[in-house]
From TrEMBL:
InterPro entries: ChyE-like (IPR044992), Class_I_gatase-like (IPR029062), GATASE (IPR017926). SUPFAM superfamilies: Class I glutamine amidotransferase-like. The keyword rRNA processing does not apply. The keyword Repeat does not apply. This is Type 1 glutamine amidotransferase. It comes from the Bacteria. Residues 137-283 form the Glutamine amidotransferase domain. GO terms for molecular function: transferase activity.
Length: 361
């Protein structure tokens, strides 16, 4: 390994979590150098493995103390970085989690985690409820934070809404980049000083159609790869009615004034969408059936049989996403039928997290 010395000092910019220590290469290190760290006899790397050495992973030096953190710089070839550590946040109460499991198979944060693992196999995930007390150090050990959707109504003065806003305020203070779908966007807006309210004429069910970029959205990296107008999974009865200072609206449709936004507040940067890139078409089918009464009340279906028929076509398209005949019948296209294209905003967020472009200066 070139005989470079071990240094008996803390790893630079160390990130610690349950059972792991992660280190980042020093900013002043040469491009072909990475930092190798060990806690006692276990070596953990950040950055590409030193594939010039067939003996990787190497052993810690014999004199390493069990509680010591030792580092040395090792020449490496260019390679892929480690996956980021992401915290998935639930804003559903235990009762709401169980209700969603009963009709969709998973609570919202569980569904989100499954989508992230499918998008980035090997990604490291932790989960937490925003109703639990946390600390800045708990948040700061993560590379990014993702807020799942929920039925929470941030315009109501409830204990849950207040707790969710407090949790998000901590995220902004910690300076960890964050992303949120649906309720996640509303929580961030309220925590930063914005407002939410009921959506008129009613809930946006199954899909948000005709989403169009604003001028700011045309050059925003969260929407990289999206066409000028698109359709996305959606299921919400409230919207952001006023963005806080330091925020930009990135997309809208005729009935939802803010479909996507960036919020900069305190030390943090938040990217959010009012829709659900993470939801499969099968989950949208289950949620639509679950809200059949609302669908019928809005005149979107004549009766429950209409809702069930639409849900059946959605399940068929979920199982065979290249079936253009089903997509045509539903007024959809590959932008929503194909998983990688449906998850575009989340993939762009993970790319930005990994590149370090969303961290405070």
């Amino acid at each position: 390994m070139g005989g470079l010395p071990w240094v008996s000092s803390p790893c630079p910019d160390a990130k610690s979590g349950p059972g792991r220590t992660r280190c980042h290469a020093r900013q002043d290190a040469p491009a072909d150098i990475t930092t190798i760290c060990t806690s006692g006899p276990r070596i953990i790397r950040h950055g590409p493995a030193p594939n010039t050495d067939p003996a990787w992973p190497i052993a810690a030096p014999a004199n390493a103390m069990p509680s010591a953190t030792l580092c040395r710089d090792v020449p490496v070839k260019k390679g892929p970085p480690l996956s980021p550590i992401i915290l998935v946040v639930s804003s559903e109460t235990p009762a709401q989690q169980n209700e969603r499991r009963s009709y969709a198979g998973q609570a919202s944060h569980e569904s989100y985690a499954a989508a992230l693992r499918r998008l980035r196999p090997g990604i490291e995930l932790d989960t937490v409820s925003c109703f639990e007390a946390g600390t800045l150090s708990d948040l700061a050990r993560h590379d990014g934070i993702v807020f799942a959707g929920s039925p929470i109504q941030m315009h109501e003065d409830s204990a849950e809404a207040r707790a969710a806003a407090r949790f998000m305020a901590q995220v902004f203070e910690a300076g960890v980049p964050a992303f949120g779908s649906c309720a996640g966007l509303q929580i961030a807006a309220v925590a930063a000083g914005g407002a939410t309210g009921p959506r008129h004429p009613g809930a946006e069910v199954a899909f948000a159609r005709d989403i169009t970029r604003t001028e700011a959205g045309t050059r925003h990296p969260m929407l990289d790869g999206r066409p000028a107008t698109w359709t996305a999974p959606a299921m919400h009865s409230s919207v952001v009615t006023r963005l806080p200072a330091g925020a930009s609206s990135l997309a809208a449709n005729p009935d939802t004034p803010i479909e996507a936004a960036e919020i900069r507040h305190g030390r943090g940067t938040f990217w959010g969408v009012q829709y659900h890139p993470e939801l499969s078409l099968a989950e949208i089918a289950a949620s639509t059936v679950h809200q059949a009464d609302d669908v019928i009340d809005q005149g979107l279906a004549r009766d429950r049989r209409d809702v069930e028929a639409m849900a059946a076509r959605l399940r068929d398209l979920d199982a065979a996403p290249t079936r253009v005949d089903i997509a045509w019948q539903l007024g959809l296209n590959a932008e929503i039928a194909l998983f990688e294209r449906r998850m575009r905003e989340i993939a762009n967020f993970l790319n930005a997290v990994q590149a370090g472009t969303l961290r405070p200066l």
